[in-house]
Amino acid sequence: xxxxxxxxxxxxxxxxxxxxxxxxxxxxxxxxxxxxxxxxxxxxxxxxxxxxxxxxxxxxxxxxxxxxxxxxxxxxxxxxxxxxxxxxxxxxxxxxxxxxxxxxxxxxxxxxxxxxxxxxxxxxxxxxxxxxxxxxxxxxxxxxxxxxxxxxxxxxxxxxxxxxxxxxxxxxxxxxxxxxxxxxxxxxxxxxxxxxxxxxxxxxxxxxxxxxxxxxxxxxxxxxxxxxxxxxxxxxxxxxxxxxxxxxxxxxxxxxxxxxxxxxxxxxxxxxxxxxxxxxxxxxxxxxxxxxxxxxxx
Length: 298
Known about the structure:
This protein is an all-alpha fold. About 70% of the residues lie in helices and about 0% in strands. Helix 4 packs antiparallel against helix 8 (about 150-165) and helix 9 (about 175-205) runs antiparallel to helix 12 (about 250-255).
């Protein structure tokens, strides 16, 4: 009996057992890498499912493109009656629009399913995610991955391209680097808001519209110049919910425009740090919400 126990301990790699190896033969992957791997596998599954009906996929991508294009058509209609909006030309607003729309579209593609957390909490289907040996956040984020959202990204990129071609910008190396930084950091900031909003749904259970007011509503806000909004609102999206770091602050640096709130010029380079800070807070909120979750029992 004792000999069989020792043999079992050897196979399990129990530290301290006679003849046991120094480490487990199959070390666990870091939690982050495991989550990324799981996300990729789930995403690939949904992409394969989507591409099984290519005509339907093409129509839904075009539909997303057309629906989001109406936002910019609205701006074009405004400029058919005015020469400037809040002191900004059509091309300058197109830059603000293109950056925010592209950043949000990228985030919506990768994390757009986060608003389903409240529904899962209510119907108890979140339990099926908890019993799997994969981070819950990765499962929720990749659930029903919608490749059709490429239409929103394409539309944002086209408007951004139009702005860059038509604007007379005094380009410098910093301004050139600012463009991809704005898109990537902006998508990360929106992503942190998605995760924080999903964490809030563990408590509220039906707060997807509250989350959407900061995500979908936030990108609509950023598509217009800050000069048309009240000073309190501008301060709120700068110091409370830092949406201004998605496009307003760095884009106004590119345009050589002053920000309505008196801030030093170097804050335009802070979006990556703001994104990291936002993800840190969102991660804390997500873990707290997950620990507070109580199954429906159904």
